[in-house]
């Protein structure tokens, strides 16, 4: 089977890195088209031996991209097209249909209650989404919460498939040597209590809540934020205004796997080893991958929203605790953890449940159903 994955961009983001992990596991001949931004994840895919094509799309309304994408699909002789993220799902489904491919799968990575990839969920956004969704055979939800949102939107039950995000747990195993190296590299004292946050530096992630919480914590506490995005300047300014500039470290984007062009940048696993707790203040998530990665690193996790954990039995999420949104509740919880002292926890069952190998096996089943000659696709 030959499959083409179409994604909006290949910067360091959750959906982008999830794609790279999946392609390492799928027993399928895969190629990738990125509409824009062939960033670090494109480099990683190329290093893995995956062909990556940059379509050079100029913006959301660059309609000239559609015939180019259609022609590319026609030339490739693909059996199946799999799209990721809003823009790629819209253009990719249309192009696949025009090219004569009917086995079209899309993964819904970022559907929240009120936002879709940071866009407010207006009637126009929802209408366009549903119009594109009808062109496909299957829509993959990354969590049971997202699957339920799709049902409420009116996506037919038979087209919804639950395939959770997955992680390579071994990449996050605690490493004491990496902890020392990474702290030294970032200027974090060995005896500091380090609160970590991982994700895109965007308004919806609300990392400013952690800066406000830090202001209420003892001077030995530090905040380490891993990620890039439009809110970086605002977060730096907030830290300066609170007199916390020397206690807040913005480490920038970090790949799950070492980046071929910048092997000196610590991978995410090393950065998690440098932390003492993982905090996720975002009140709305489609999955909450960072929380699962934190648990894989043996960290206590405190979060405002995480469908990945909320969808599982409580006994499999030991070490994680849901908090009320806001700086006050995070400050209280983090103060209690700091008083108890840094410790590594046993990796809970949730981490093993969200294995990338398991996700790849489930997705392979979705592909088989999408390729079936009958239209009656049942839910996996």
TrEMBL record:
<keyword id="KW-0328">Glycosyltransferase</keyword>
<feature type="domain" description="Glycosyltransferase subfamily 4-like N-terminal">
    <location>
        <begin position="12"/>
        <end position="170"/>
    </location>
</feature>
<dbReference type="Pfam" id="PF13439">
    <property type="entry name" value="Glyco_transf_4"/>
</dbReference>
<protein>
    <recommendedName>
        <fullName>D-inositol 3-phosphate glycosyltransferase</fullName>
    </recommendedName>
</protein>
<dbReference type="GO" id="GO:0016757">
    <property type="term" value="F:glycosyltransferase activity"/>
</dbReference>
<keyword id="KW-0808">Transferase</keyword>
<dbReference type="Pfam" id="PF13692">
    <property type="entry name" value="Glyco_trans_1_4"/>
</dbReference>
<dbReference type="InterPro" id="IPR028098">
    <property type="entry name" value="Glyco_trans_4-like_N"/>
</dbReference>
């Amino acid at each position: 089977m030959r499959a083409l994955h179409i994604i909006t961009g290949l910067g360091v983001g959750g959906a982008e890195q999830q794609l790279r992990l999946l392609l390492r596991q799928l027993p399928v001949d895969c190629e990738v088209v990125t509409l824009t931004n062939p960033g670090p994840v494109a480099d990683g895919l190329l290093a893995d031996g995956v062909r990556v094509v940059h379509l050079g799309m100029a913006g959301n309304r660059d309609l000239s991209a559609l015939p180019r994408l259609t022609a590319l699909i026609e030339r490739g002789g693909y059996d199946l097209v799999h799209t990721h993220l809003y823009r790629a799902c819209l253009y990719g489904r249309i192009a696949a249909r025009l090219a004569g491919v009917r086995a079209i799968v899309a993964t819904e990575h970022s559907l929240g209650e009120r936002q879709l990839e940071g866009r407010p969920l207006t009637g126009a956004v929802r209408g366009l989404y549903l119009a594109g969704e009808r062109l496909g055979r299957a829509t993959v939800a990354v969590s049971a919460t997202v699957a339920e949102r799709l049902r409420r939107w009116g996506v037919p039950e038979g087209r919804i498939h639950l395939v959770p995000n997955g992680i390579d747990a071994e990449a996050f195993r605690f490493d004491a040597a990496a902890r020392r190296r990474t702290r030294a590299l970032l200027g974090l004292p060995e005896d500091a209590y380090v609160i970590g946050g991982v994700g895109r530096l965007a308004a919806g992630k609300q990392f400013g809540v952690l800066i406000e919480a830090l202001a209420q914590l003892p001077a030995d506490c530090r905040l380490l934020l891993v990620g890039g995005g439009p809110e970086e300047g605002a977060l730096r300014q907030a830290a300066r205004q609170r007199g916390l500039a020397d206690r807040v470290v913005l480490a920038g984007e970090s790949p799950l796997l070492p980046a071929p062009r910048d092997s000196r940048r610590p991978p995410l696993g090393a950065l998690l080893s440098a932390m003492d707790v993982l905090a996720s203040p975002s009140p709305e998530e489609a999955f909450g991958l960072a929380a699962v990665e934190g648990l894989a690193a043996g960290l206590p996790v405190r979060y405002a929203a995480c469908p990945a954990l909320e969808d599982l039995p409580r006994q499999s999420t030991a070490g994680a605790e849901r908090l009320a949104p806001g700086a006050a509740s995070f400050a209280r919880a983090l103060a209690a953890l700091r008083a108890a002292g840094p410790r590594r926890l046993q990796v809970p069952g949730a981490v093993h449940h969200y294995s990338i190998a398991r996700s790849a096996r489930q997705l392979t089943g979705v592909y088989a159903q999408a390729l079936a000659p009958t239209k009656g696709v049942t839910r996996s």
